[in-house]
Amino acid sequence: MANRDNPADINETDLCYKYCAVNIEILIEDIEIISARSFVTLIDLALSFSHSMKCITIGEQGGFGFTEREEYISLRCAGDLAVATSSKRHWHATVEREELLEALRKFLQDAYSCLTSEIPELENNPVIRRLDQETST
Q: Is the pLDDT higher at 116 or at 21?
């Protein structure tokens, strides 16, 4: 990436959909929300998590989808809990809202750290900077 483009100047669309496919696994109540067997685009997912954090913090519904497949994971608040449901699979999982927010915050911190340690010039990219700002608030 650094040889073809200046990382600080890569636009959000390219960052979200051209770079940084990763394997991650997310479980809630032993339900596989994201399987480690599939690839997801890290920056797209991180930005979706960032938006979901904002929504959940104020008690609104959040969620995230996948470029790689037609599925949307809805995250809605129910008191001190967050309830996750899938648009494609028949399950629902609950987790403490604060536990979910902390896990999302840690994911964003880890994503930012990984991206900027591998490609230090990304620290100057406004999209990547947003990830860092989310974990600082």
A: 116
